[in-house]
Amino acid sequence: MRFKKAGNNMKISLKTIQWNKFMVYIVFLVVFALFSATLADKGFVDSRNIMNILRQTAMISIMAIAGTFVIASGQIDLTVGAVAAMTAMIAALVLERTNSIILALVCGLAFGALAGSVNGFLVTKWGLPSFLATMGMMSVIRGSAMWITNTAAVPIKNFAFNNTFGIGTLGGISVLILWTIVLYIVGIYIFNKTSFGRHVLATGGNEVSAGYSGIKTNRVKMMVFIMSGMFASFAGILYAARMQAGRFSFGDGDELSVIAAVVLGGASMGGGTGSVIGALAGSILMGIINNALILAGLSTAQQTVVKGLIIVIAVALSNFAQKKKR
Amino acid sequence: MSQVLLEMNNIKKSFGAAAVLKDVHFALKKGEVHALVGGNGAGKSTLMKIMTGVYTLDEGEILIEGQVQQIDDPMDAKKAGIAMIFQELSLVQTMTVAENIFLGEELKKGIFRDVEAMNRRAREVLEELGLDVDPTTPVNQLSVGMSQMIEIAKAISKNARILVLDEPTASLSTSETAHLFKIIRELKEKGVSMVYISHRMNEILDIADAITILRDGELIVSDAIENMDLEKIIFYMVGGKSSQKKFEWVERAYDAEGEDLLRLEHLKVDEKIKDISFSVKKGEILGLAGLMGSGRTEILETLFAIRTKKGGTVWLDGRKVDCRHPWEAVQAGFALVPEDRRKQGLVLEHSVRDNAILPIVQQVVKGKTPTIDDKAINEIVNRDVEKFNIVTSSINKRIGLLSGGNQQKVVISKWLNTNPKIMMLDEPTAGVDIGAKSEIIHIIRKFADQGNGVILVSSEFTEMLAVCDRIITLFDGRITGVIPRKDIKEEEELEHAVQESGE
């Protein structure tokens, strides 16, 4: 068979479809339909409940944008939860001293960029595996967040800050949801429409080939870590504004939820694949499951067990789909 | 001499329509070192893979000590006492020498591993081979040469009586080679038979007792080494090829007296390859010919800044270039079609389109925005697919699913899109079918005709003689000759040139 013209390249048949990429949406729809049917009387499908889910998952969703870049480039970043907590502390402290929203934002995002640069440095210059480098840094950053006020929470009394980044609404929609949408548009654009996105995928797909093709793979990895740090620090700002305080314990365990969302979204842990919008679906899927289990009246212990099982099954499904492709 | 240990009679093997072995005979005597020689695609490795159970034969029989022996899988071969020593070492790097020797067959005391007994037994085996190494040393602390000898020790400890050595000296230093030969001679005394595959004729003449030469899947000659010399071996290997289809040399017009496009002065790669000087004219195709380990690949990798240059100067188009990263080399105007297409040239999981556009994707953008122009990319890739006759159902097909030849055409087309001045190709036609081969040769010629330079490394001399205007021969990291293509009448001459140390 010779090649076909560009128009035919778009043709999708059941055989050529990349099941692993779409699995998250299928699981999403099935789970949603299931809960809608069984939990309708408990208010699962109420628009208020749906908005609630989206609001609760906003931080994970936002961190999962950069998380997609990290995993697509073949790396892993375990510092995101700690960076969010430290940023919340920094923002709260800056607001307490200066009451300047701009300064709080700048300091917070600068910390995220710094944390990302350190991770990138450890991985690209010192050659540490990213799992270990970021695991160590996670502890350093989380510890610093505890240290800075001796574990005391710092209340935020700047109403404009809290309103803009946490508790406010615009046209009846929570600002958290609006920020999520804005950042997803940016993330999807960078991932799918810029050469940087291509370079990230190539670096994760085969670092040697990418390097041999003239791609600055170390710079790509550095950029990806900085991006991850900055998205995490923005999530930290949202945490601080939503809770109207800085607390060292924010985002505890978020790094794993982010990885789960990204992988559910169709990325392979080995790098080279990934979908930003898929990560959003993954993140919301986990939020839905969480919410439904609460509505169903499960205890916290039961929720934790069921949540874990659902993640395992969903990832296994997309894994099988990927194998079938080969 | 002594009796025949192993006999392979009337061996036939085809892959699809291609007959790789056509009625081959091979006989190995007890305690003999038997060289197996032939060009690429002659069928050497297929024959050995049949012997070691990797492939099954289509027709023919294998006899061991006169008894018909069924070898259907590697376990059968192992039971029969046949072991292959791989080019790519198969030791577990993090385990000790003793652990590797007993891997899968650990000695036990009750349910626990008997580490002491294994170390003791390993020490005996090593001493028997005259290897001065502590069995508790982790393998990753050993040199390549020593690791290879440990592999031999491992095979011997499992009572192998036939060893297949595939290019064992390719990555060994002179002293390591001498040590290996000492061990080979000792094993011979003990009655172990060895098949010795190599392109290095001097070594074969030194170590082998007998030689079998294959060409295009056919047995050409099998004789005692006393009846052979370098001339004869080369003649049997490549001689009389005129009858068969080969690539025609087309004399190309370029200004041989013109200015240098690329000039290397005293390039130093490492301690072995330390003084390489040559130049490439505009429009010239230069070949680097040499055996494995002669430095041909290393020179290309240094020009492309994959290896760090240790010294010397490189001039490209009259300007001194000093690249420290591959991306700097790309910007300077170099392109490299690497030796291992799958590991170094492509992202196999990605589409034809993504691979073809990779080096220039940042340039195909809409106006001054950073937005990549998908339509323009599709046009470029579709044009390449058409121009280079790349057979794929769609440009969005995963490149890993394409044939070797089509994959290689994508690699070459991706580099042509960067408008390089110098294209370096390392074994560009390895694993590529004959049709795609001639297409690739055509692309190379056309690229040079546009006033660019090409450096070609290939172990297929027919191909080299078909395209190169000038050939540099390398031996052990040194340039031993510069031969204009016009002066080469027969492939034998080139084969001869790469075998010699130039002293």
Shape of chain A: globular
CATH topology of chain A: ABC transporter involved in vitamin B12 uptake, BtuC
Give the low-pLDDT segments of chain B. Answer: none
Measured by DSSP, the beta-strand proportion of chain B falls in 15-25%
- Which CATH C-level class of the largest domain in chain B is it? Alpha Beta
* Helix percentage of chain A: over 70%
Strand content of chain A: under 5%
Our measurement of the CA-to-CA distance between the termini of chain A, rounded to an integer number of angstroms, reads 20 Å
Number of H/I helices of chain B: 17
Tell me about the biggest sheet of chain A?
2 strands, antiparallel
The helix/strand order of chain A is HHHHHEHEEHHHHEHHH
Mean pLDDT of chain A: 90
Radius of gyration of chain A: 20 Å
Key structural traits:
heterodimer; A: 326 residues; mainly alpha; ABC transporter involved in vitamin B12 uptake, BtuC; two-stranded antiparallel sheet; 13 helices; 73% helix; globular; disordered N terminus; B: 503 residues; alpha/beta; Rossmann fold; six-stranded mixed β-sheet; ATP hydrolysis activity (chain B)
SSE arrangement:
The complex is a heterodimer of chains A (326) and B (503).
Chain A: H1 19-39, H2 47-72, H3 80-98, H4 101-124, H5 130-147, E1 154-155, H6 159-167, E2 169-170, E3 173-174, H7 175-193, H8 195-205, H9 207-212, H10 217-243, E4 245-246, H11 254-264, H12 276-295, H13 300-325
Antiparallel strand pairs in A: 1-4, 2-3
Helix pairs in contact in A: 1-12, 1-13, 2-7, 2-8, 2-10, 2-11, 2-12, 3-4, 3-5, 3-10, 4-5, 4-10, 6-10, 7-8, 8-10, 11-12, 12-13
Chain B: E1 4-15, E2 18-29, E3 33-37, H1 44-51, E4 59-64, E5 67-68, H2 74-79, E6 82-85, H3 97-101, E7 108-109, E8 112-113, H4 115-128, H5 144-157, E9 162-166, H6 174-189, E10 193-197, H7 201-207, E11 210-215, E12 218-224, H8 230-238, E13 260-268, E14 276-281, E15 285-290, H9 296-303, E16 311-316, E17 319-321, H10 326-332, E18 334-337, H11 341-345, H12 352-357, H13 374-387, H14 404-416, E19 422-426, H15 434-449, E20 453-457, H16 461-467, E21 470-475, E22 478-484, H17 491-499
Helix pairs in contact in B: 8-17, 14-15
